[in-house]
Amino acid sequence: MKHKFMTFAFILVFFFLTACSQNTPDETAVSTQTVTQTEPSTNTDGVSRPDGWTEASHSNDADPNYDIVFPQDEVNQLTITIEPEDWAAMQANMLELAGEPGSRSAAPGGFGGPPPGDFNPGEGGAPPEGFEPPAGAQPPQGGPPADGAQPPDGFGDAAGGPGDLIAENPMWVAATIEFEGQTWTHVGVRYKGNSSLLSSWNEGTLKLPLKLDFDEFEDDYPEIDNQ
Length: 227
Description:
Shape: elongated
Helix content: 25-40%
């Protein structure tokens, strides 16, 4: 009887150990699967940087490399490419802001210009004795007009005067910048300045100052964020 009881107990222990060994891999697999599902993604925003992007050349967190930008033994070349339709839009916008290019010039006697005619001021800049300014004209030294006359309409609109300042900044367009084998895309570019821009525009020259903003269009193109 004792021998039968021990045999029965041995069989129970054998089945118990067998059941434990069969359940362990399943429990381990479930645990491993749970860990895999909670791992964070390495690309949460799904945005890929443009080809050639590096932190050293494109990120605004990089330290400036003055040896590359301002070399002492060569003149650097920066290429700005603007699409034809964007270039046309820039010119149309300037026409609205400043009128036809080359259509205005500095008035005689304006800022930095010589006085009209044969007028020669006396000592200290005062007008010579007996001098009377033309009716309606602004007299020297900013004194009151002769006979109570007022300056004609539009006075002060000559180039360089207060009336010539552009009321708003010119429009932005997207451009491609190339420098030393690197390319920056969707860079904001617009005409820059006010009196200096207007002076060049009124001369009819295309040598106009530009302003670049590498982050201007980052909301439209997230791949260049903090460019």
